[in-house]
Amino acid sequence: MPDPALRSAASPWWQDRTPEEITVLAAADGVALLPLAAIEQHGEHLPLSTDLDIALGLIDAALPRVRAGVPLCVLPPLAVGLSLEHSAFAGTLSLRPETALAVMVELGERVAAAGFRRLVLFNSHGGNKALVDLAALKLRAERRMLVVRANYFRFAPPADVLPADELRHGLHGGALETAMMLHLSPGKVRSERIGHFESLGHRMAAAGQFLGPEGEAGFAWMAQDLNACGAAGDSRLATPALGARLVGHFAGQLARLIEEAHAFDLARLADGPLDRSG
Ligand SMILES: [Zn+2]
Questions:
Q1: Where are the domains of the chain?
Q2: pLDDT for 109-144, tens place per residue?
């Protein structure tokens, strides 16, 4: 009889478990996954919840793709993140960078205290990326955990799914996010407000400039710098079918990451010289 805590039909949510079940899952090389999102403006065609809806939609789609028997616990999502770059627009919520970093690290510490050594930070918001890097490094250094920095927008998209220009400059509320929302939550998309929101980055690249808001040497930007209406990208290219394809693709990559985090040999995370002396 497999341990009931490991039953594949059991809830994936951390908060649905009991202390004993959490201990069993952790001891079985379990993986904890922390969804990181944002509540922020995405122009007038998408809701403030866009990043949260995408994070949870990708996790929902990934779970059935994870090999049975891989112990997994999904923590309650951190719905609000660091959205300073969108603060000029009504409705955007944001934590200060120091606060958001502290929350991520402190949640990671509780996950470690429960016995987990494998944590996936699954992030759907570009503005959280620097914090994900720092939180992962702090937890690695202080707790010797495997901490995966899983920003889905950094996963390679399916080939030929969108023009290279749109993938590069459609950073926010463009074709990619709008398509996934048309698939995951079509009732929330204000179709009549869909449009082409040309990014400053696109205009600078078209003028042959090396400098731009993103890329090898990017400058810090506020959303209104990219386009006055807050979105950047061509949301007219979005369709529900494209959204379904993107969600399936990114969910497959997330499922694979979870399996590989479960199988990772923790002996590869060596103690440093200071730890050995202590
Ligand atoms: Zn977004």
A1: 10-268
A2: 999 999 999 999 999 999 999 999 999 999 999 999
Query: What are phi and psi for residue 81, nearest 5 degrees?
Result: -125, -145
Question: 150-192, pLDDT tens digit by residue?
Answer: 999 999 999 889 999 999 999 899 999 999 999 999 999 999 9
User: Could you give the CA distance from residue 54 to residue 37 in angstroms, rounded to a whole number?
Assistant: 9
- Centre of ligand 1 to C-alpha 38, Å, is 8
Residue 165 Cα to ligand 1 midpoint, Å, equals 18
Closest CA to 222 of 214, 234, 230: 230
For the full predicted model, state whether its pTM sits above 0.85. Answer: yes
Q: Which residue blocks in the chain are alpha helix, DSSP H? A: 19-27, 50-62, 97-113, 129-143, 164-169, 175-184, 200-206, 223-226, 240-263, 273-277
Ligand 1 centre from 151 Cα, in Å?
Answer: 12
Are the beta carbons of 131 and 80 closer than 8 angstroms? no
- 42 CA distance to ligand 1 middle (Å): 6
Strands 72-74 vs 118-123: parallel, antiparallel or unpaired: unpaired
Q: How many CB atoms lie within 10 A of CB 9?
A: 6
Q: In CATH terms, is domain 10-268 a member of 3.40.50.10310?
A: yes
